[in-house]
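Can anyone check this?
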Amino acid sequence: MKKIFFLGFIILSVISCKAQSIQPIEKAIDYRRAGGIPDNIYLKDVNNLLTKYIGTWKGTYQDKNYTLYITKATSKYETITWDMLLIRYLITTSNGNVLENTQNLPDNNTYIIEGSYFGKDLAVYALDFTGKNAMCGNAGTIFIRTKNATNTLMSFGFEPNKTMISEDTCPGFKTAELTFPKDGLMLTKQ
């Protein structure tokens, strides 16, 4: 009987050591600043901070129409799980010609914009963007923020990575045309 009790105790100890700790996604910025997310953490949207962004958003900038399709997803890497936003997009000219369209790409495609963290004040959400010709500067961080109490207006800012480009990847040391404007744009929820 002692052996069964001892064996049961060991099994429960092992199971409890592997259990995931649920933390609010708001803590992601703290973990980033501290050097990384610890093992066995689930950064969960327990306070529904991501919900206000979910949906279809439209805006126009310099004769281009931008439509963003924002969804919520849960991702897992080894022992870390987190809730985040994914953004697919359709960019057309003012006369309807499609310039870029990521609507039908799978979640793990590099062209899908992937959520990363909330700023300390929880007003701004940062996402990682890798576009075509990323090695030539078309990659960076996107910052989104709702702009009114009803969450129907959103600002969308793009900060390109500071990338050293080379002649091998960017002939003539020419930087890539950016998918999104550096000046930012305003979008309306549909």
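Reply from J.R.: I decoded it. Residues 157 and 184 are 4 Å apart (CA to CA).
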